[in-house]
Design a protein that fits this description.
100 residues, alpha+beta, two-stranded antiparallel sheet, 44% helix
Amino acid sequence: MSDKTLTRMDLTEAVFREVGLSRNESASLVDSVLQHISDALVAGEQVKISSFGTFSTRDKNARMGRNPKTGEEVPISPRRVLSFRPSHLMKDRVAEGNSK
């Protein structure tokens, strides 16, 4: 697995280089896009990014789980989870990258 992580700063720098906005404007744009995505997910909406994938939330019911170390049953409270489903194009790109 790679040690490299794409950060918010990396995205800002890419916008700065590719689009030609100032660094401050690039940072503001990246923050704004991420905030819009975040707000939509908090509101329970799906976020679909063409050729990339779909982010969505779903509610999980309460259930009984088991502590793997002790075997003791533990109640797991209901919660909302975030999921991501990559597009077929993204899956293909990642698969091609693995074969190189």
